[in-house]
Design a protein that fits this description.
Elements (H helix, E strand, L loop, with lengths): L1 H10 L7 H13 L7 H23 L3 H19 L4 H5 L10 H14 L1
Helix pairs in contact: 2-3
């Protein structure tokens, strides 16, 4: 209804966004709760952050889903590694080693896609 559209647009900086995006924006606002940004500006900034994430997904994720997934895993591991405090005993025990790279498989898939297109 026009009333619903107006309500959503007024809440999200003039943008008409779906419920899933609205939840993502609310999560971004929660992340910013400790920032110095004024409350009114937090929602606007959260919408910008989410729209940037959507744009990155649409640019890379739809064209090259394996690369997007690999990038997402990399980011997840980066965040996790910052939180883990390693003690000296764990570093002495050694760690997991990689037996092979996934890059040849990704390159093959990209090459196959190029041949199809």
């Amino acid at each position: 209804t026009p009333e619903y559209i107006n309500r959503v647009r007024s809440k999200y900086s003039g943008k008409l966004i779906c419920g899933l995006c609205a939840d993502a924006v609310e999560e971004e606002i929660e992340k910013m709760s400790n920032s110095d940004v004024v409350v009114a500006k937090r929602r606007e900034e959260a919408v910008k952050v989410h729209m940037g994430a959507c744009a990155r997904f649409n640019k890379l994720g739809r064209s090259y889903p394996l690369l997007y997934q690999a990038e997402a895993v990399k980011e997840m591991l980066k965040k996790r590694s910052k939180k883990i405090v390693r003690d000296t005993k764990s570093s002495e025990k050694g760690g997991l080693s990689r037996s092979s790279s996934c890059m040849p498989a990704l390159a093959k898939e990209l090459k196959d896609r190029a041949l199809v297109n």
